[in-house]
Write a structure and sequence with these properties.
about 100 residues; mainly beta; three-stranded antiparallel sheet; 10 strands; about 0% helix
């Protein structure tokens, strides 16, 4: 059954940035959009399992630091070679300055 897990504080993530989060041995990435919305994806690129938290956030995309593959972090959609497989996304919510993600 899915559960809401506290991932970070809102102040931990600058606008247009990403931070790592780990829970139960799984890596996640938490993003803050330019308009202060929060999103979460799996923590690894689907191409060669590079950590996305080391990548570059631009607008609504995350660029993998290894081969510059890009994903739309709001939907998980792979935006072209070398990444061809979408990254999994997770629902988020903010309560009292804490960002929660819903994990399986």
């Amino acid at each position: 059954m899915p559960q809401w897990i506290a991932a970070c504080e809102t102040d931990d993530v600058d606008p247009e940035d990403v931070v790592p989060f780990e829970h139960a041995g799984n890596a996640y990435a938490v993003y803050r959009s330019p308009d202060d919305a929060f999103f979460a994806t799996d923590g690894y690129c689907t191409h060669e399992r590079e950590l996305l938290c080391d990548g570059l956030v631009m607008g609504g995309t995350i660029e993998c630091p290894k081969h510059n593959g890009r994903f739309d972090y709001t939907s998980g959609k792979a935006l072209g070679a070398p990444v061809l497989v979408d990254v999994r996304t997770y629902p988020t919510k903010v309560e009292d300055g804490t960002v929660y993600i819903e994990v399986p």
